[in-house]
Amino acid sequence: MIDTVVIQPGADEPSVAGVSWAAVGGGAIVSCALTLVLLAFGTGLGLSVVSPWAGSGVSATTFKIGTGLYLVVMAMLASSIGGYIAGRLRSRWIGVHSDEVYFRDTAHGFIAWAFASVLGAILLASPASSLLGGTAAGVSQGAVSSASQAGPMDGYVDTLMRSDAPAAQGSGPNSSTTSDLRGEMVRLFTSSFRNGGDLRPADRTYVSKMVTTRTGLSQADADKRVNDVATQVKTDMDAARKAAAQLAFWLTASLLIGAFCASLAATEGGGLRDGTWRRRTTR
Length: 283
What we know:
The protein is mostly helical. It contains ten helices and no strands. It has two domains: about 20-130 and about 245-280, no CATH class; about 150-165 and about 175-240, no CATH class. The protein is elongated.
């Protein structure tokens, strides 16, 4: 049996627009504001549970899982409230079928979530970067200027060039030569490990000889130190890669859950606005 649709003469489409941008914008702004508040609270909560002392605070694994779960909860709360406001404040549609109203409410929540996500990526990234940058600057005020300009590979070069006579490091007429050698080794390590590679055999032999000359170690001990440092570099890079991948997965999950919560909350807000929420739930 084929259903037919009868169009009555003079039954025009309602003049009210299908999207209430004022309601969408209000819900998106509220969602961004709540995200900022929850982000600040989560930062303080995270700093209160970690500790540099051994045996104090939570473990790294617990902290990463807790951070991911908090991102999901934060997205649920902010998106739900923003979607509810977008659905509750939208203009009422007169003469529109209930199924169409339900779809439009869902779309209002989804659009509010999308607008809030784009707006948050643009606006909330700058305060977060400034906050992290200011914190790092305050911590490093007591450090020397050369240490403040250190790169990610300088710590590994320090380990390589460590001598049994620390007082003699960086002093004497060969201090400029030592500085040039450190710069060369930093550039060598950076270029070698940038793409997840390793030291080439010729570079490894050269570094080992430089370590022997600088520290006075035997060739065998220098080779072992170079191998240990190279292994540590790859281990740390692999750990950073895994941490970044886990954070990306948690962010993806929080965004998807936020979109669902915003859409569902918008339908509830629109139903309460029209007085049809109980009838939708019963049906």
